Amino acid sequence: xxxxxxSLGTWRPAVSGERCAVATIVAAGGSVPRPLGTSMLVSEHxxxxxxxxxxxxxxxxxxxxxxxxxxxxxxxxxxxxSAEDAFAVGLTCGxxxxxxxxxxQSTSAAGLDPALLNAVGGxxxxxxxxxxxxxAAGGAVVVRDPARFSxxxxxxxxxLLGGDAGVIxxxxxxxxxxxxxxxxxxVRLAPAEGCGTVPDPKPITLLVESRxxxxxxxxxxxxxxxxxxxxxxxxxxxxxTLCDARPAFSSQGRFLAAxxxxxxxxHRYLAAEAAAGRIDSRTVVCVLTHDPKFDIPLLETALGLxxxxxxxxxxxxxxxxxxxxxxxxGTSPEALERLxxxxxxxxxxxxxxxVAVSITAEILATRAPQAARGxxxxxxxxxxxHPSRPENRTPEQSKVTPWT
Length: 404
Description:
Layout lengths: L11 H4 L4 E10 L9 E5 L4 E3 L7 H14 L3 E5 L16 E9 L9 H9 L5 E6 L6 E4 L11 H6 L4 H16 L3 E6 L14 E8 L4 E5 L3 H12 L3 E6 L2 H4 L9 E4 L2 H10 L8 E4 L4 H11 L6 E4 L3 H13 L4 H4 L2 E2 L11 H16 L27 H4 L6
Parallel strand pairs: 10-11, 10-13, 11-12, 13-14, 14-15
Antiparallel strand pairs: 1-2, 1-5, 2-3, 4-5, 6-7, 6-9, 8-9
Helix pairs in contact: 6-12, 8-9
């Protein structure tokens, strides 16, 4: 739903005040085109904003949304692939979706208040969250600062949950990690103990959509590899900073695409950013300077922080020397386990562009290790980190001196 809000101000049905329903993916299995939390708006006249599956199930969802608006109730629809009936509504990719459909109309207790959505859509902050109650009680709460949100301190969320202290404590344990991490998820809570007189009480179901400012990628090293990694990091959605202590290197025009271009000693800059609260657990650090006087103090600082990824470029011999230097500085063996060195996945990368792909691939693999089975990080391998047989090298690769 968060992705659709910036468009509400220009979507004709919303501007004209038509009744609408929101359809949201609340569960997904197998191969599906869109993730949990993806939403689509349907107006009372059948106009659509957004997409759930790229066309596989949209028609059936529109019909269900129109029906929901007619009777004023929410519903849960399931879609999957049926080998027995090739003409059944479903996902040809073989996956399964559960789609929650909810009217947006202020007169319905189960609906979302249009004024609430318009207030959010009117000002689009980079950090916000939406908590929607999907069970019969309905309702929603907008969170303006999810990174610092406390469930116990929110009167609006307490009202959404019915005010029961036990439910609020249980909600805090599940909601706050999602909000603080900028993630989307479905939360189910046992109803209040006072509901014991109600036969078969339904759980409280919340959909949390949380968005934080872009995570940061800090590239240390104004060289060919840094120049190639910069656009790759931006392509993945990172806010990219390139830092180098040498003005003659960092002032080159090829680095101007960085969100931040810094001339400072790397370890000093990283320590200052951490002290200012501009580093978090989503931050990625790529050390490409390949120079011990920069690398050792920088990696000592980085490995003392809670970061998503720390990688350092160099050969296996450079890596061994780097480890010795870090141990001599007092870095613990446990912290060194977090260091990706040599940096990147073992893809046979040689050119700066290929190395950038190798590094970003490893960063993605650390986000979802279960999806990266079969790929080997260079830090876990042995032997030269570049192909040495001339017949296996492209003309472009042959121009590059291997840093083995």
